[in-house]
């Protein structure tokens, strides 16, 4: 008995340095050469499962696409509206320039014809000038003025002041005439007045 007990004690002491402690509830596991614990005595082996991480899919969602389309449509509408405003402003500027050019040409013709006339007669919408047996008639028709020279070869010239022009004709004394032209699309703008005077001997 003593020899068998001594042999068992020697074996126990030989096992303890390896990492196993008998007589206690906590069993230390043997440590392998790489510092890992490959198994545990009295317990089932545990394996750690590593699941691969799912990568996030890169792409554009339908909601994002709709937002981009709405934003693009809004920018396009704003651009079209801006272009329309610019175009309208350019057209108004061209009409104003053409109106002033036609009015200046009409004023030069009227002053020259009145200054060379011998007599004149004025009605509501017509001015008649007489000189050397010939008649020169200025006739208003809405926003248009027709200049007609009678004779063997009658000549006619037309002055256009735009679709929204308003005209009025007044006689100034015996030798003068005042012609007013106003654009109705410009209510804050003053009327253009042309004063023509006949030269008296």
What does this entry look like structurally?
By secondary structure, this protein is α+β, with helices and mostly antiparallel strands. The chain contains two helices and eight strands. The chain has helices spanning 2-15, 62-116; strands at 119-122, 126-131, 134-141, 144-149, 155-160, 165-172, 176-183, 192-197. It has a five-stranded antiparallel β-sheet, with helices on one face. The longest helix is centred in the middle third of the chain and has 55 residues, at 62-116. Residues 18-27 and 37-45 have low confidence and may be disordered.
- Rough outline: rod-shaped
Can you count the beta strands? 8
Please state how the strands of the largest beta sheet are arranged side by side. Answer: 1-2-3-4-5
Q: What share of the residues does DSSP label as strand, in percent?
A: 25-35%
* N- to C-terminal distance: 171 Å
Our Rg estimate from Cα atoms comes to: 55 Å
Query: How would you spell out the order of helices and strands?
Result: HHEEEEEEEE
* Average pLDDT taken over every residue: 76
Based on secondary structure, the structural category is alpha+beta
